[in-house]
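Final report, Chapter 2: Outcomes

The project's central promise was a pipeline that accepts a single protein chain and returns its three-dimensional structure in a standardized token representation, suitable for archiving and comparison. That pipeline is now operational. To close this chapter, we reproduce one record exactly as it appears in the project archive, with the input sequence first and the structure output second.
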Amino acid sequence: MTAAVLAEARWPEAGDGPPPAVPGFVHSGFAPLVVAVADRCLRARYGDGPLPAGNRTAVVLVSASGDRASAGHVRATVAAGGRVGPLFFFQSVPNSVAGHVAARWGLDGPVVCLSPTGDPRAEGMAEADLLLYDGDAAQALLVLIEQAPDGTPGEATAVLLGEGTRQ
């Protein structure tokens, strides 16, 4: 079985500034970018949400580099003998923002985070296909994100996948 694309979104699009801040996440544009692109994709399919209970929608977050800005901040703070703020322990794990998206939209399927070694989209699609095939999810929100090396938000794509035939 292969998954059909039910909705797709990108950030940034023409006219986009930085993504809006997300309460509980600091310093970095990684979490705001994930939330912004996921919201854009899910709104394209479901309006303002949340989805009804029992939707079995998984979240698959794929990023080779993760949250570069937060990692750099923590590294520099520790090297300077400083104290790392407690929010960095929470947001240093990509599952935290994936879980935030799931809670915000009522997605009640599994949450999976991947750091691809090959083609990020192909690896993310393969994981989503596996979740659908195994019956762990009825649909999957695939979020592909890479933060720019300078710590600016970067680019992201979100794809909502469901049962059907991929084109």
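Archive annotation: The mean pLDDT is 88.
This record, like all others produced under the grant, will remain available to the consortium after the project formally closes.
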